[in-house]
């Protein structure tokens, strides 16, 4: 299920506290259940793939949070 929230990412994360997810990039938060695949390059996590095929970027900081799930 997709949910679009207007405002800051920080505020949206507060609204989604009941959903397991992580802020994988400065402008992205992803629910754990929506991850269908990951893309790696140079030995590090570069992107999360969503069910619709969207590649979500993963920052170095965000990779630490997402790596715990993999």
Characteristic terms for this protein:
70 residues, alpha+beta, three-stranded antiparallel sheet, two-stranded antiparallel ribbon, 5 strands
Report on this model:
- The chain contains two helices and five strands; from the N terminus they run αβββββα.
- It has 70 residues and is of the alpha+beta class.
- The strands form two sheets. It has a three-stranded antiparallel sheet. The protein has a two-stranded antiparallel ribbon with strand order 1-2.
- The longest helix has 8 residues, at 60-67.
- It is globular.
Indicate the overall shape. Answer: globular
Strand order of the largest sheet: 3-4-5
Portion in strands? 25-35%
| Structural class designation | alpha+beta
Measure the end-to-end span. Answer: 22 Å
Largest sheet: 3 strands, antiparallel
Helical residues, percent = 10-25%
Short description:
The protein is of the alpha+beta class.
